[in-house]
Every structure is written in structure tokens, then in C-alpha cells.
Hints:
563 residues, alpha+beta
Amino acid sequence: xxxxxxxAAALLATTGVYADDAxxxxxxxxxxxxELPTFTPTTIxxxxxxxxxxxxxxxxxxxxxxxxTKGQEEEWAYIGxxxxxxxxxxxxxxxxxGLVVKNAAAHxxxxxxxxxKIDPKGKDxxxxxxxxLQKGLDCGGAYLKLLRDTKSLHQDEFSNTTPxxxxxxxxxxxATNKIHFIFNHKNPKSGxxxxxxxxxxxxxxxxxxxxxxxxxxxxxxxxxxxxxGDIVRDGSLFDQFSPAVNPEKEIDDPNDKKPEDWVDExxxxxxxxxxxxDWDEDAPFEIVDEEATKPEDWLEDEPLTIPDPEAQKPEDWxxxxxxxxxxxxxxxxxxxxxxxxxxxxxxxxxxxxxxGKWTAPYIDxxxxxGxxxxxxxxxxxxxxxxHPANFEPMGAIGFELWTMQPDILFxxxxxxxxxxxxxxxxxxxxxxxxxxxxxxxxxxxxxSENKPKSPSDLKFLDDPVLYVKEKLDLFTTIFxxxxxxxxxFVPEVPTAIGGLLVTIVALVGIFTMGGAAPEAAKKxxxxxxxxxxxxxxxxxxxxxxxxxxxxxxxxKRATRSQS
Length: 563
């Protein structure tokens, strides 16, 4: 053990660089510190704009209601906590705070009333906010709700049953990953509300970097959804939601029934067809190929497997306790280059007389009347809403969520009527911070490691300890079988040993001569050092001439070490 340590130290010395130097290099190439901009509140105005600055807790109130579980025995309360704080993951702006969901596997609810109700009739409606999933998102929501302006709107009682106008934002659980856009539509005939869900909703971004979600609804009943400033969906409120805004003009008559004699089978077995007399249903699918002959090189007397001639009974095998030792079998090498071994039998072939079970062919059904469908009648519940974008007035914004991952952060909420102002706000905030966050993320990423395929590909500066360990291990492995080959394949070790011996001789000379090295001792040390240099040159030459051998041996060893 001590000898190996000494050799390792010598090997380190012969490389010309110590582990301390390697650590210094690693430190010098460490991640660059990213300079963060400082938060400055925006001067942009909107019907509702929130950056969670001073006084946020006077605007936002957590709910203390119980969640409506629709008859379930277990009751759920909104016990999830909220906080306003700076992000700890990939901070993009110094001093920029956001609203944070603090608890995992808990129901959270919080809301803020608008200074005055927002009525989108006849105007563009823009809803925009940032989401930062600091711990990712496996299962949970990060969407907001714009709550209907009613006299019964109380922040303390905000829950899943609180009437809302629009629900918008990301939702993820398992394979489900979408950006919700749901709006509540009032039936002008019945006065009842019905949720309209966007079909084939775009996917949300699941990342620890901030993401920007934007919804634009126009007076012409078109909408646009943006993610990170890029359009991911646009269309019409009329044809991309389920259920549709306007019902069908006609519906199936619920009282119409299919006649009992209605024939809706288009094709039937031919009733006049008969099985041919020569049709043999019992004929097998395959028969013996009587024309086949045994190949000339078939070794009928040779078994397919033989006892492994290289197998040896283990030294600790006890015949009395373990029974008679039987060597394992291996494929018979004599069978490898011939057609086969062992008893030969004629192969099977497809039976030309095989027809299988007979069935009558199909013909067009002369009694077929077509696919039956009930007659259409006027829809008694039909109405036509030509302006579904005229949403009802909204009085508050709320987050009513359940999530398995805490620390979801919301920031820079814009609700208003100006697309240009919302884009300007995003340029001041989101796009400024997201560039920094990506730079911070890149700086924190571990450097890609080009791991060597074998010990011969190792470089000392990459990992000095691993370099020395692998070289010593490889040298001792080869040395056990062939010392000469070991010196050829791993010249660094014998060179290090030579250097170690020179040092020992010099030290012995110094101590035996009273501390000062006489000229004879110095000359001896110099001669030994010169011989070490010559040995190093010769071994280097041996390595270059035996490169193929070393690669083969090293790759075998690398394969073993990886298995």
C-alpha cells in the first residue's frame, strides 16, 4: 500500500503538474458571475397592473373558505400559504418580487379586487402575467381567474364555486399539459352559465425559467394566445370551443324510433352459394417435403452441444457435498460451418391443397335501406349570440389552485385593453429578466464531460487522481501476465518508479555522507537520472510501435470496468 502511494506521488511528479495546479485551473474556469439589473417599478398604467410592490397585502387577501367537494365526505380548506418574495432559482432582476405558492399538496386561494370593474364590451381584452416554476411542475395548476363583478364577491369567501368570467393559464398533471382558456357564457334564453373550453389547447412551458402567458380577445370575436411573446394559438370564439357558443339550429327528434323492419346491413353472405365438392376443410396447412434430401455436409453423428473443453472444476468443489461436477456445455464448433448436426429429418412445406374452412362469399344486400338516422326538428333551445366576446364585467382576479410542487411564482400581471402597452410592459420586465435568467442557468450548468473511452485516453489535467489510479491499475493488471508488455503499454509507471529510485539513492547518499552530497553521490544521481530519461525515451518508442496492442488490451479492460 505504501509502495503504491509512493509510486503515485512519483507519477504525479513526472507529469509536471500537481493536483493543486489542476484544482487551480478548475477554479479559474468556474462559472462566470452574471450581473443582475435592479428592479424599477413600471410607469405604465392599466385597469389592473400588479408587480407586488409595497402594500401588496392590502390588495391581495387569502381565502378562508372551504372548497366545495360536491357531496364528498372529506372537506378541503384553503390552508395553503402565500408570500411575496424574490425568486431563489435563476433570479433575473435584483429586488423583483412575486406572489409565491408556498405549500405542496395543499389548496391555495387568494384574490385582489380591481380598483373599478373592468367591462370588456367593445374593446380588446388583454390578460398577461408571468409564471416561474421554481421547482418544476409535475401536477398542479398555475392559472388565474377573472371573477365576475357581483355584490356577493367577497375575498374571504373566494373558492372554486366563485363565479368567474375567464380562466387562463398553465395546468399540468401527468400526460396532461395545457394552457387553459375557458370562458363562462350566459345562455340568453335560460340565463344559465356554461363553461366553454378551448379545444386542443397549446402546451405550457415546464421550466424553472420565467414564462410569459398572454391572452388577447378582440371585439370581432377572435382570440390570440401567446407564450413567451410568440403566438401559439389564434382563432374564433365561435368554432374552437366545446360546447359551441351557439347551439345547432336543428336537432335529432328524440321521439323518432328506427322501424323494426329497417335493414341496415349493406352486405350479406350469398344464400345461394355452396361449398365446392373438392373443398377439403381437413387438409393441413403444412406437409412434409418428401423431395427434400439431407445436405452432404450434415454431421448426423455430431451433437449440437459439447462439454466446454476450457471449463475447470472449481477448487472449492466438494464431490461429496456438491455432487459430481459436470462441465457446462457450449455449441459444437464443428456445427458452425456446416448445414447442421444431429439426426436429420425432412422439413415441412406449405400444403398446396390447403384451403381452410369454407365460408360463403358476401354480396350486396338487396333489402338494404341505408344507415338509419332520426329525422331533424327545430331546436327549441336554439339561440344566436353574435358577440360572445362581450364578456360580463369583471371585479377581481384570483388564483385558486392545488399543486404538488410549491414555490410557483406569479409576477407582472397586466389586465387591460391595450396590446401595445402590454407588449411594452413585457419588454420592461419579462424580456429583460428572462435573458438574465437563461444566462444564470447556463452559468450554473455543469460543464459537459467528454469521458475517456479507455485509460489510454485519460488526461492528467482532467482528473489527476483518476489518471494516477487508472495508470497504476492498468500497469499492475498487465504486469501480472507479462512484465515486458506492461512496461511497453504503460511507460509512465516505470518512469515514475525510476524517478523514485533516483530520489531514494540521492537521499541515502546525502544522509550517509553527513548531510552534504559529495561530488561522487551527485554524479551517481545524475547518471541514474540520465538512465531514467533514456528508459523513458525507449518506452515511448515501444509504445508507438505497439499502439494497436495497447488499444486492444486497454479496450478489453475498459469494457470490464464499465460492465
